[in-house]
């Protein structure tokens, strides 16, 4: 990616605030999943509103703070909350934060989200490692990007080695970890039963309103990606599923402890980052 003086200026600003890298990984938390932050040691934190160019999350359940600290014996960068395409129509809403993660020396990216499940056996409270995605939103964060770098290969977008480490971590901390394909709908309205039926026929196991644009941006930036969904509800029309945002937040909060344990065990398995 070409040098961007705006990114360089923000990186200098964050280093001056104590958020310098390198980091074993950067982690993005989804709705109601900020409990991971409580496990950080020697943390430095800066609200998004104090970082030039950072989006301000405008969705309840998203904290809006950047943290750097220790987790599982490794140094990590945690984005507590994200911006969504449905807030402004900008699929590249997380481009600046992810560019900062890469510039600060993050070696990998762990994305988390709250999702609806099309599989009753992976019901509310379940954790699911993503193996692939289906972009049903009509958006792409690289629209308008110049140069051949925009033609990002997406085979293996969710890194198989990192996913294997997630499974090792899950066994180590006694957490059941499913696998599945995530379908991205633009939101903010929830999906209809007919749309869920279509997604299922296309091969989706989960549906949600985030993560996919961040994965595309991360691959553009050269960051390997792992992703975990916390199932907060059965998708519309599945087993009587009729999702609401209040349900999403409540179930995510209850499952956040398992996710935090999994993330910490995963980070422990990552190599010590080098500058």
Structure in words:
The protein is 31% helix and 24% strand. The protein is α/β, with parallel strands linked by helices and 275 residues long. It has one domain (5-268): Nucleoside phosphorylase domain (Rossmann fold), CATH 3.40.50. Strands 5-8-7-6-9 form a 5-stranded mixed β-barrel, surrounded by 4 helices. Helix 4 packs across helix 7. It is globular and about 50 Å long.
Radius of gyration: 17 Å
Average pLDDT taken over every residue: 90
Number of helices: 7
What is the C-level CATH assignment? Alpha Beta
Largest sheet: 5 strands, mixed, barrel
Secondary-structure class? alpha/beta
Strand content: 15-25%
Please mark out the parts with pLDDT under 50 across 5 or more consecutive residues, or reply none: none
Question: The CATH topology, please?
Answer: Rossmann fold
Salient structural properties:
Rossmann fold, 31% helix, alpha/beta, 275 residues, five-stranded mixed barrel, globular
Describe the structure concisely.
Helix content is 31%, strand content 24%. It is an alpha/beta fold and 275 residues long.
Could you give the topology of this structure?
Elements: H1 5-16, E1 25-29, E2 41-47, E3 65-71, E4 74-80, H2 85-88, H3 95-104, E5 109-117, E6 127-135, H4 160-173, E7 177-184, H5 193-202, E8 206-208, H6 212-221, E9 225-234, H7 245-268
Parallel strand pairs: 1-4, 1-5, 5-9, 6-7, 7-8
Antiparallel strand pairs: 2-3, 3-4, 5-8, 6-9
């Amino acid at each position: 990616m070409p040098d961007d003086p705006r990114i360089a200026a923000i990186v200098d600003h964050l280093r001056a605030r104590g958020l310098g890298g390198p980091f074993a990984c950067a982690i993005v938390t989804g709705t109601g999943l900020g409990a991971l932050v409580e496990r950080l040691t020697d943390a430095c934190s800066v609200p998004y509103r104090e970082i030039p160019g950072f989006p301000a999350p405008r969705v309840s359940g998203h904290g809006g703070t950047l943290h750097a600290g220790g987790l599982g014996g490794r140094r990590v960068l945690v984005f507590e909350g994200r911006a969504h395409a449905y807030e402004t129509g900008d699929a590249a809403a997380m481009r600046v934060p992810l560019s900062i993660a890469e510039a600060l020396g993050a070696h990998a990216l762990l994305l988390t989200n709250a999702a609806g499940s099309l599989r009753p056996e992976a019901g509310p409270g379940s954790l699911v490692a993503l193996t692939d995605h289906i972009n049903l939103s009509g958006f792409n964060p690289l629209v308008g990007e110049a140069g051949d770098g925009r033609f990002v290969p997406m085979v293996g977008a969710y890194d198989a080695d990192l996913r294997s480490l997630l499974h090792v971590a899950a066994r180590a901390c006694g957490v059941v970890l499913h696998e599945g394909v995530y379908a991205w709908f633009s939101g903010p309205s929830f999906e209809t039963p007919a749309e869920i039926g279509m997604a299922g026929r296309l091969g989706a196991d989960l549906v949600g309103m985030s993560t996919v644009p961040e994965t595309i941006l991360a691959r553009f930036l050269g960051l390997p990606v792992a992703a975990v969904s916390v199932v907060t509800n059965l998708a519309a029309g599945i087993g009587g599923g009729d999702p609401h945002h209040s349900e999403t937040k409540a179930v995510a909060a209850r499952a956040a402890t398992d996710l935090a344990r999994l993330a910490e065990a995963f980070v422990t398995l990552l190599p010590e980052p080098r500058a």
